[in-house]
Amino acid sequence: MIRVAVVYGLVLLFGVAVAGKILKLQFIDKGEIQSEVQQQIYDNKVIPAPLGNIYADSQNQRIALIQSVPRYTLHADVMTVDSEVFFAKVDSLAYHLSKVFRGRSKQQWKSDLLLQRDKGNRFYRIARKVKYDELEKVRSFPIFRKGRYKGGLIVQEQNVRVRPYGMLAKKTIGKYKELDNHTVSYGLEAGYKEYLRGVEGYKLMKRIGANQWKPIDSEINVEPRNGYDLYTSLDVNIQDVAEAALLKQLENQRAQSGCAILMEVKTGYVKAVANLKRGTDGKYYENIDVANMATEPGSTFKLASLITLLEDQKLRVTDSVEMPGEYLFYDQRLRDSRPEGYGKNTVQYAFEVSSNVFSKLVFDAYQGEEQMFVDGLRKLGIDQPMGIDAELGQEGSPMIKNADHKEFSGISTAWMAIGYESKMTPLQTLALYNAVANNGCAMRPKLVKEIRNGVEIVERFDPEVMNPQICSKETIGIVRECLEGVVHRGTARNIRARGFKIAGKTGTAKIASSKGYTSKYQASFCGYFPADEPKYSCIVVVSGPTKNIYGAVVSGTVFKEIADKVYSADLEVSKKRKIDKQLAAKQPASKNGSAKDLITVLNHFGVQTNQSGKLDWVATTAQKNAVQMRERRIAKQTVPNVLGMGLSDALYLLETAGLTVRVTGSGTVRKQSLAKGVKINRGSQIDLELM
To answer: Are 379 and 482 found together in one domain?
Structure first.
């Protein structure tokens, strides 16, 4: 009986425990359990915000260097479609899908759709990375045209990063991507990530299978906010010229790497930055930031030495100096590139032919006053970084040693005078030459002009003066004459240009390593043009050339090619603007395009329009006091005529027709590679040239 009582007692206790657990689950833990179940079925997924775009500033035209464009993933809930409608229209739907997504035939599409219906699939993927014009066509297909709830088409938007100009300015535009174990971070994308990244949103999703989530319409959904846009000072045309000229010379010289930077003299806005390095396959890639690497600059540094000598009244450029070709500093010998030397001539001539007599001039002038020379260099601001880390990545630190530095020796001034025992980045060197071109006013180099949220300006980066006067006006006038002389009769005679003057200085320096100087050289040319009224300053640096080592030949020719093309383009732009102003004063003008949009804009500005009937697409002609509109018919399945249109109208027509568009230039369409009326092969490329 005792054993029976114990067993019954245990059974009773177990029953009470089970009942208690049931009551606890039903009344106490009910909310928490429901939440856990719901979490397994539903989840509030993060929706990444579209990154802001980065624009170039090309002749006052905003051109996208990198942008976020929408692409769509299409799914079908085949079970939401009425059975009668589905089986009646599935054959037609399969036919239309096969025409847009050519990877499968009509029969394959039909078989897949029927199979998914049998499986009860409510989230069957149709396609990924679909363009907007393709999406619009899919929405008009049988079954799908009934909408999401009756037709079953589910559209998920995502944004992808697109570079319309390919790898142009790749290193400058940069990249920012957070990976599992590291972060890829450089250039504008990284430096301005807080502006570009936007604010992510949230969307309620329902689990419908293993790792399959279906979006649900809900009041708790939050749309992401787009990132802000960056408006840079880069000019795509100048950037293209700089990259092409640099690449051609690097390939010719089989050089290690090189860079070319072009800047506006008055503002400091950088118009082009090209960085190229030879890969293991012998080809050149923009995967290194040469523009921000601090190295010994070589003879381009002689400008700083000359200014310091003049400011300290240690000499005049008209003074005579002996240039025997070899100079002795204790036990160290220094030679000119011409072994026999240059004889007796003026200091100005010594500068123009880049004689290393400058080492002796500085050494003798500052014997016992070495810190005075260092202080003179520092007054020029060449020991200060440009603060352009956010734009180009980590900036190399300039190095100008004080006289009490542990590595400052008895001949340091002699070596510093010609660009050794000191370090500067190409951009820092360019800033000095730009200041000379700007009558002594040093401008801070800048790449970003504005940050915008749509049309709203969030932040503006105006030109910034670093030093209003680096030296006296008199000294500026003297060294500008010397820089012109380098090109007119000195080491850079080979780059004299027609129609305008170039001023600048060549540089050739041995490349140092941890074990001392190597057998390789760095060739450079830094200057500005037009010399009489400077508009642009530019530096070209080439490391490790194999055929020639001198700056005039290696880098100077690149400088000249860039200057020639930029100057001629500026002349054409100036002429065009003059003509446009003359036309604008006489008559209203407009582009071809959408009649509705044109009429809206012209009416807003009080310009009359003459047209007959309702028109969709028009060609316009400016009359005395009005714009005449003539119908431009757009035939289906043939290439439309987009000449005279703006880019937005041209893109709409061509992409809707199924063509892939590649664009060069800015303004109005002047040329199209496929003639109007030609039958369209979907996916074919058409090139547009805008002017």
So the answer is: yes
Residues 114 and 21 in one domain: no
- The closest of 255, 280, 172 to 557, measured between CA atoms, is 255
pTM of the model: 0.73
Answer whether residue 313 is part of any domain: yes
Reading the block at residue 221, the tokens are: 């959904």
**What Å distances lie between residue 8 and 5, 15, 21, CA to CA?**
5, 10, 20
Distance CA 547, CA 493 (A): 19
Domain-embedded: residue 580: no
Handedness of CA 156, 157, 160, 164 (dihedral sign): positive
pLDDT of residue 186: 75
- Let me know: does 451 contact 458? Beta carbons within 8 Å: yes
**For the segment 199-242, what is each residue's pLDDT rounded down to a tens digit?**
777 777 776 554 556 666 666 677 778 889 999 999 999 999 99
- Backbone phi, psi, residue 14, to 5°: -65, -40
Task: Note whether 187 and 306 are same-domain residues.
Answer: no
Alpha helices, DSSP H, located in 451-547: 473-488
Q: Which of 211, 232, 253 is the last residue of a domain?
A: 232
Residue 152 sits in which domain range? 48-232
Residues in the chain: 691
561 in Cβ contact with 595 (< 8 Å): no
Instruction: Calculate mean pLDDT across residues 471-493.
Output: 96
Inside any domain, residue 582 = no
Q: Check which CATH number belongs to the domain holding 288 and give it.
A: 3.40.710.10
Clarify whether residues 225 and 317 are in a common domain. Answer: no
Token digits of residue 442: 């040093």
Residue 373's beta-bridge partner residues? none
Question: What's the rounded Cα separation, in Å, for the pair 410 and 160?
Answer: 59
- pLDDT reported for residue 493: 93
Looking up residue 618, the CATH number of its domain turns out to be 3.30.10.20
User: Are 627 and 620 contacting, i.e. CB atoms less than 8 angstroms apart?
Assistant: yes
